[in-house]
Amino acid sequence: MNTSEFARTWRIAEAKARLSEILRLADEQGPQRIGVRRSFVVVSERLWREKAPIRQPLGRWLIDHMPRGLDLDIPRERGSARPIPFVSDDVEDDTE
Fold first, then answer.
1. Is residue 11 a part of any domain in this protein?
2. Considering the entire predicted model, what is its pTM?
3. Structural domain tally of the chain?
4. Could you read off the pLDDT of 32-81 as tens digits, one per residue?
5. So what's the pLDDT on residue 91?
6. Which residue in 10, 40, 56, 71 has the fewest CB atoms around it within 10 Å?
7. How far is CA 23 from CA 19, 28, 87, 95, in A?
């Protein structure tokens, strides 16, 4: 969206006072810009859904983008990778 797509730029104080009008105009005329230095755009939900990309679940994306055709040799270590605290091989039995 470039600046020519906006009918007008609303000042923040004016936008606060006339929010319902801005929402109506966003639905009828298209995006409404609020603010000059730090600007924000109000759009209707219908327009937002038209422009927003279709999102798919993360699981589906991971399956679709899984590396294929690679012959990776992943080394696997069978032993314990780190010591287990509070475990010792030379524990004496104190049940006597």
1. yes
2. 0.51
3. 1
4. 999 988 899 999 999 999 999 888 899 999 999 888 877 777 788 777 67
5. 57
6. 71
7. 6, 9, 67, 78
d(CA 6, CA 41): 9
DSSP line for 35-96: -SSS-EEE--HHHHHHHSPPP--HHHHHHHT---S---------S-SSPPTT--TTPPP---
Range of the domain at 10: 3-55
Closest residue by Cα to residue 1 from 50, 66, 37: 50
What the block records as the tokens of 42 is 């109000």
**CB-based contacts of 24-27 (< 8 A; 24+ apart in sequence):** none
Burial class (CB in 10 A: 0-12, 13-18, 19+), 6: middle
Closest CA to 6 of 55, 40, 46, 56: 40
Q: Could you tell me if 14 and 25 are in contact, meaning their C-beta atoms sit under 8 angstroms apart?
A: no
- CATH number of the domain to which 30 belongs: 3.40.1620.10
Can you read off the two tokens belonging to residue 9?
Answer: 């730029």
